[in-house]
Design goal:
This protein is an alpha/beta fold. It folds into 4 domains: 135 residues, Helicase, Ruva Protein, domain 3 (Orthogonal Bundle); 142 residues, P-loop containing nucleotide triphosphate hydrolases (Rossmann fold, 3-Layer(aba) Sandwich), CATH 3.40.50.300; 63 residues; 222 residues, Ribosomal Protein S5, domain 2, CATH 3.30.230. It has a 9-stranded mixed sheet with strand order 20-21-19-18-22-25-28-27-26, with helices on both faces. A 5-stranded parallel sheet has the order 5-8-12-1-13. A 4-stranded mixed sheet has the order 4-2-3-10. Strand 26 and strand 27 form a beta hairpin. Helix 15 crosses helix 16. The chain is elongated and about 170 Å long. The two termini are 13 Å apart.
Length: 739
């Protein structure tokens, strides 16, 4: 009997069963993560990004720029931190600014001058200036009316003397008493006037203190320190929204403008990251484009200096500027996604990319990496690093409580948080991962990628590791085991994962209903996948398909509903394949109308992975042969050959739930390595249906609930598994058709 398989093909499938043992051997250097050492080199703590790490070392050596392009969660921010740390350890003392930046009044009220000087020298000079101002401020004489009081006192004493003399003369000459009275009244008046002057002097001293001179014109000439390197020691500035205000600086609004006091512009000046930060990290380059700062950045990167300018509106400070430039020899570290990179390649003929590549490198972050022994060891290292991070989080959150009240208080407080009783020996302490638990993390990374690779989008995995830690802590387990990781995976779903779970529940009952109500002719269980943009995770789900083929006036395919361009092209490709089969089995040479229905696929369908399923359903309807509804199928059909598709691991995993009632799946031969992660921590064995090789995975303990996966090279292999059509048998054989 002719076959599409060679003898070596069966050996390759058997070798798949050795994958879990090989993975365990690669992780044999530890029993649990307590035996794993974290590298001293900070760059080596970033995993999966070997090309990026080498680029960072070269760029750091050359003090160049770097642009990291990749999807969220691949480690761009972490690499930027490592870049800063490496430079800080190596040449940080030379990169870190040493001079203070001081602003002086310029040629007129709208201009300033900037100077770079030793901060200690600037501080000493400003102290001397302030002391001189204080002296000038306190040099005013105390308010006094002593001269006026002295004059009044002299006249008063003279009048008193005259009054006494006149009174004595009156003893002999009576009219002299008149002169004595007048002199006495004058002395009394002057006494009152003297007291009035003393009161006035006291009031003035209490209200004004002293006659202080107006020295505002001197204060306005005092230089302003815009930047003191002793107060800011971080080498890198993180900028989330690059604009002229936070990158270059500017001039604040004059708060005293309405009072005509006019704050000088050098006291309203402030500077941004260009003048103060040796390294500028732009977390998302798309915001720089939205803020229209690209042109300014290109000019500064070229000239390594810039003029400080006021705002571009007509408000206060709009006309202010510096007479001389500020230095800006920054190292630019930026991140972006691939859509932004496409814009940068067109904008200004790639001017920004040219600046980056002139003194640095554009680094493409890996979204998935090949599974090698070194990469597997890096996964164990990564798990250990996350365990240490969780331990530090516990210490920050509960360290003070443990120190003051002990672990018993932590247990009581945690009972209020979790709403249940906890063991008496409960300890809020991180647990180490067992080797098998680390293998579950490897499995999840494999499931989120394809072609035998591990997903490099690690941010969502951080949450899974922490959730598994809490599962072990709440069970008071000494280590994190595979069951804890699996529970964390069930609970830690993205938005798309939650949607897929709900759709899966619906499809479960939908499939049971269709199976019970039809004869399974023209019906097939396809396999689809929902792609999560945020986490990079794929979520599989069954996709029931119904097809009909009728004799018509012309050959055409009708596929109603929301379908993408690739899905429509796949339907046309299936039409050509079906016509070839009809001709092969001697069907009449007439027109055939083919109808394809994706049952309740309300979100639309895109891709060509359902083309094999469509072919099977159409053939089933034409020859009235039922399709086994307990098997799912996926694959891209090209003629008679089945080609690889994406998300096979997740597609198969989505129908392995025993409650769904599925017993197996047919997948493309080229996707055979996508089955490997499903074998981790599971019992499996080699099987064969006629000449078609497969693997049987037991879904429950005790080798119960078998699930068979067959690797098909052509659509005729799928015909055999799903419809029992054997090519060598005559057409009269029950449940068989010659093809």
């Amino acid at each position: 009997m002719p076959t599409d398989y060679k003898e070596t093909d069966y050996d390759w499938i058997r070798e798949l069963l050795d994958y879990p043992r090989g993975l365990e051997e690669r992780l044999a250097f530890f029993d649990d993560t307590s035996q794993i050492q974290i590298p001293e080199d900070p760059i080596e703590r970033v995993i999966f990004q070997e090309r990026a790490k080498m680029a960072i070392r070269k760029v750091a050596q050359n003090r160049g720029h770097m642009l990291m392009v990749g999807r969220p969660g691949t480690g761009k921010s972490m690499l930027a931190d490592m870049f800063r740390e490496v430079l800080d350890r190596s040449i940080g003392d030379y990169l870190r600014p040493q001079d203070a930046i001081v602003a002086f009044p310029g040629k007129d009220k709208n201009h300033i001058r900037v100077a770079y000087e030793n901060p200690e020298k600037v501080e000493g000079a400003l102290q001397d200036i302030q002391q001189a101002l204080d002296t000038a401020q306190n040099s005013g004489e105390e308010f006094s009316l002593e001269d006026q009081i002295h004059s009044i006192r002299k006249v008063k004493y003279w009048l008193l003397t005259a009054a006494g003399a006149s009174a004595a003369a009156g003893l002999w000459f009576a009219p002299a008493f008149i002169a004595a009275g007048l002199a006495g009244m004058g002395a009394i008046f002057l006494y009152l006037q003297e007291n009035n002057h003393r009161v006035q002097e006291k009031v003035q001293r209490e209200t004004t203190g002293s006659l202080r001179p107006d020295i505002k014109h001197l204060v306005d000439q005092v230089p302003e320190v815009l930047y003191d390197p002793r107060k800011e020691r971080d080498l890198m500035a993180r900028i989330s929204e690059p604009s002229a205000r936070n990158m270059k600086g500017g001039f604040r609004h004059d708060p005293y403008q309405s009072g005509n006091l006019h704050t000088p512009c050098h006291k309203r000046a402030y500077i941004g990251a260009h003048a103060t930060a040796p390294i500028i990290y732009i977390d998302e380059l798309k915001t720089l484009i939205k803020m229209h700062y690209m042109a300014d950045l290109l000019e500064i990167m070229q000239n390594q200096q810039y003029i400080l300018e006021g705002g571009k509106n007509a408000g206060s400070g709009a006309a202010d500027r510096s007479e001389n430039p500020l230095r800006a020899a920054n190292i630019i570290v930026a991140c972006c996604n691939h859509d932004t990179l496409a814009y940068l390649q067109e904008e200004g003929d790639g001017a920004f990319l040219s600046r980056i590549e002139d003194k640095g490198e554009v680094v493409h972050m890996e979204s998935a990496v090949a599974e090698t022994p070194d990469i597997v060891r890096h996964v164990a290292q990564y798990v250990k690093q996350e365990i240490l991070n969780l331990g530090r989080d516990f210490q920050r959150s509960w360290g003070e409580v443990i120190t003051r009240e002990g672990h018993a208080s932590v247990r009581q407080r945690s009972e209020h948080i979790f709403g249940r009783r906890l063991p008496a020996d409960f300890r809020l302490q991180e647990r180490e991962f067992s080797r098998n638990a680390v293998m579950e993390i490897v499995k999840e990374l494999r499931c989120r990628a394809a072609d035998g690779k591990l997903s490099a989008i690690l941010r969502p995995i951080n949450g899974i590791i922490k959730s598994a830690e809490f599962e072990a802590i709440l069970e008071n387990s000494p280590r994190v085991e595979p069951i804890h990781v699996r529970k964390a995976l069930e609970e830690h779903l993205s938005l798309e994962g939650s949607l897929s779970r709900e759709v899966g529940e619906h499809k479960k009952y939908l499939k049971k209903y269709i199976t019970s109500m039809t004869d399974s002719i023209g019906y097939v269980v396809g396999l689809a996948v929902i792609y999560a943009k945020s986490s990079g995770q794929m979520h599989g789900q069954p996709l029931p398909i119904h097809c009909q083929i009728n004799v018509g006036s012309a050959d055409k395919v009708a596929a109603p509903g929301k379908m993408g361009e690739i899905a429509k092209a796949a339907a046309q490709n299936v039409r050509a394949s079906i016509k070839k089969v009809l001709k092969k089995i001697g069907a009449p040479n007439v027109g055939y109308e083919m109808h394809v229905e994706y049952i309740q696929a309300h979100g639309g369908v895109e891709g060509d992975s359902a083309s094999v399923a469509m072919d099977i359903a159409l053939i089933s309807d034409f020859i009235k042969q039922p399709v086994n509804q307990r098997y799912g199928v996926t694959g891209s059909l090209t003629g008679d050959i089945i080609l690889a598709v994406g998300g096979v691991t997740e597609k198969v995993r989505s129908i392995m739930d025993p409650e769904l009632g599925m017993e197996g799946a047919c997948i493309p031969w080229l996707n055979k390595h996508d089955v490997e992660p499903l074998l981790i921590n599971a019992h499996a064995e080699y099987i064969q249906n006629a000449d078609i090789p497969g693997i049987r995975i037991y879904r429950r303990e005790g080798r119960a609930e078998p699930f068979d996966i067959y690797f098909c090279k052509t659509k005729y292999s799928v015909y055999q598994i799903l419809m029992g059509l054997v090519p060598s048998q005559p057409a009269s054989t029950p449940r068989s058709v010659s093809i």
